[in-house]
């Protein structure tokens, strides 16, 4: 046990960040007898769960068994590594898939408001081969509905000392590979030190920090719906004491997403993205880069093919191009947008353009006009012949009836790829090995640890919950094998 600081007895564990990983870590640690301090920079707990879809994945759950779906952690592991193109961390993925069924069962036993269609194979990310994605009817909020009552109970019982509006600004070292505690900026702006026997960093990623994102991701621009609380501060504090970061080279954008009218990096919420999943809505439009050139079969069923092609395009931008006839005949491209919303967007929103001919459309959208004219003509030939150079198969209509439309999209980020290197006990790694008492879980260990250069469905939220629980129990001296959780 360490000494006293800031007028309170030192806690057994300081958990920095009260989001997807931090909440279950705090619940388990407190319910197993530890004195826990939770430090959260925002004015509420929950982190990214307030905006995440929070789709979970697990192979070998009770629900799958009840529905007659044959699955196991081994099959989940093989699928996850296939989708990550073998670029995820195999040992951490193995740990995650072994704990995943217990995590989903745990949520279910706590009356998780699961969507009746789950588990299913979903197609927004490269799909699994077995139905093993689960989601709540109220997305991330359904997960919070399970976590918050237990967290609040532990706070009310005095087992958790919750400090909102409090930012960890630094970790303090005590010897080469030991942490003495944390430095905090309190709500009144003063700085204070807090000692702790152990520190868990559950500070999330950096997908809300447009300055830090390129610095940690080999220059890639940040565009996405990330939470502003995903500041990357925890990762930076750990690197200041010698922690290692990895995954900087494993960025793959999500295919599509429209900026908010007044932002250079924040997009509309994920539910308001254009419908670009061909399995749900075969495309009637074409997608072009700023040269006016197509770069992929828009109807490719492989998310990986489309995302990898987008990675090569200037500024990770593309425009969805269509005409009035398509607007009238096709299922809605932006299903959650009303006609009034769209009219207003085409009048004022900088990502939306409308014009009477293809050249004027290109000029309005910021695309090369000659390139776009040639591309539209070539596409219209392909509609006639039924084939093109990309292998597209769905050619419902040519693009030729004015007015013409362009909607600018981006390669977007739902989870930041780089993060703290950890060992298989989730201890943070420095250049001289693991820190004895500094742990990390959730997106702080890098989205690429579980997904590699891809997005493996459910493999951000599920491991965040599992590893948070694992660490809470482990520090309390409880067994943390999957079966006991
Ligand atoms: C729109 C969207 C949809 C997504 N959908 C899915 C999905 O369906 N499935 C999936 O697996 N993943 C999904 N993800 C990713 C997933 O939600 C996140 O990776 C995960 O929730 C992160 O959990 P976390 O605990 O690591 O961080 P968070 O939940 O972000 O929590 C981190 C907390 O730490 C706090 N904090 C940070 N730094 C400090 C500091 N220095 N001091 C004090 N507090 C600090 C923050 O304020 C925050 O509350 C999605 C992400 C987004 C943005």
From TrEMBL:
The keyword Ion transport does not apply. The keyword Transport does not apply. One of its GO terms (biological process) is steroid metabolic process. Residues 12-450 form the FAD-dependent oxidoreductase 2 FAD-binding domain. Pfam families: FAD_binding_2. Its cofactor is FAD. Signal peptide: none annotated. Keywords: FAD, Flavoprotein, Oxidoreductase. PANTHER family: 3-OXOSTEROID 1-DEHYDROGENASE (PTHR43400:SF10), FUMARATE REDUCTASE (PTHR43400). This is FAD-dependent oxidoreductase. It comes from Prauserella cavernicola.
